[in-house]
Specification:
This protein is mainly alpha-helical. It is 75% helix and 0% strand. It has a single domain, classed as Orthogonal Bundle (Globin-like), CATH 1.10.490.10. The longest helix has 31 residues. The termini are far apart.
Length: 142
């Protein structure tokens, strides 16, 4: 699977105007389908929703700037380790992300777009997951 930056950017352009509806839908979907992860989050989600939307925007903005993107994702991975996130949470998050994007992208969501976003999320998982695992190992040694 390869990433088509044009498909990712155009589908996100269709999603972006929905703003906080996107992140609210994402978290509802995540908690409904994976209730065990709810405990990792604060009771009030406004700040978390804003951070998620900003992270998605940064992901799309820096999609073709590998060095910047890797740095952002590694930082996110390290921070998520401190929140108690685990590598096994990534599939749940990815499933909810794809469901959310499909819901809000409308006609911009095609099988090719889904394949591209799936590939993007693979990069997210690999990069964030590696940094998360490194942070957990480092904390265990300390």
């Amino acid at each position: 699977m390869s990433i088509d930056p044009l498909l990712v950017k155009s589908s996100f352009a269709a999603v972006e105007p929905h703003g906080t509806e996107v992140t609210a839908y994402f978290y509802r979907h995540l908690f409904e389908h994976h209730p065990a992860v709810r405990g990792l989050f604060a009771e009030h989600m406004d700040d978390q929703q804003d951070r998620l939307f900003a992270a998605l925007g940064a992901l799309v903005t820096h999609l073709e700037d590998t060095d910047t993107l890797v740095g952002i994702l590694q930082d996110l991975g390290r921070r998520h380790a401190a929140y108690g996130a685990l590598p096994e949470h990534f599939p749940a998050v990815g499933g909810s992300l794809l469901a959310t994007l499909a819901h809000f992208a409308g006609d911009a969501w095609t099988p090719e777009t889904e394949a591209s976003w799936t590939a993007v999320y693979g990069v997210v998982t690999d990069t964030m997951g590696g940094a998360l695992a490194d942070a957990v190992r480092s904390a265990a040694r300390d």
